[in-house]
Amino acid sequence: MTRVVKIGGRVQGDPLVAAALCLAWNNSQKSLCVVHGGGDEVSSMQRALGSEATFVGGRRVTSQSDLELLRMVLSGLVNKRLVNSLVAAGIPAVGLSGEDDALISAELIDAASLGFAGRPTAINAQLLRTLMDAGYMPVISPVGYNAVSGQGGALNVNGDDAAAGIAVALNAEELILIADVEGVRGAQGDVVPALSIESSRELIASGVAAGGMAAKLESAHLALLAGVDRVRICDLAGLADSERGTFITQSQGVVS
Fold first, then answer.
1. DSSP one-letter string for 222-244
2. Which of 20, 127, 154, 156 is deepest in the core (most CB within 10 A)?
3. In the chain, which ranges are continuous DSSP H helix?
4. What share of the chain is helix, strand, coil (3-state, %, to 5)?
């Protein structure tokens, strides 16, 4: 069973991350791919350098100079720290960037409003399958390869978008988006066990689901519509409990 897990930046500070991923790795019969975030650390570094992070619809506005910062923080510090902890836990983890062999090819979303933020256009699934077939767990920084510039370069790809694209390319049975909350909260503040694409769009439109959660829901929609069987938004405990969190479905009904 191939599973793709996106670990949000805040969740990575939990000391149980490596153990939780180790359990998920074994439960997936060692067919697991991890994508990580790290936005808070990027924002912290921006502030240290005298600028402030700006977001539109949960996606980071990215200047040309921000790209080097993203490479340094996400593909360097965050990726290698997570890989190191997984190797220490006994997992044969291999750190990658979306730039490696154009693992995540991307194009600009809207240069006027988001700058050098990109959306995935192609995933090098062969690279991931080669690693996974050899028994390795890919751990991916979502800094994408600019496939349309004609000169290469990087683009900032939202981690949830990257995970959705990878799940589609690998024909994954499940995409799990790990956040620092148990699931998607409804208008009354309680966790909703299941949401259709239509009802989750209503949550976004009403502002109940905003910022990063809205971006997660949009990524979930992309994955479902492209053929991923099962998408779930949950906290770290959801890696051990397959029914925890919020299931996003194409239509209202019972989650299989």
1. HHHHTT-SEEEEE-GGGGT-TT-
2. 156
3. 17-27, 39-48, 64-70, 79-88, 111-114, 125-133, 159-169, 197-206, 211-225
4. 40, 25, 35
At residue 78, the 3 state secondary structure works out as helix
State how far the Cα of 137 lies from the Cα of 122, in Å rounded to an integer: 20
Residues near 202 by beta carbon (within 8 Å), at least 6 away in sequence: none
Q: 154-186, pLDDT tens digit by residue?
A: 999 999 999 999 999 999 999 999 999 999 999
- pLDDT at residue number 150: 84
Domains observed in the chain: 3-249 (3.40.1160.10)
Q: Strand 194-196 relative to strand 143-146: parallel, antiparallel, unpaired?
A: unpaired
Q: Report helix, strand or coil for 13.
A: helix
Nearest to 178 by CA among 219, 118, 137, 149: 219
Distance (Å, rounded) from C-alpha 148 to C-alpha 128?
A: 22
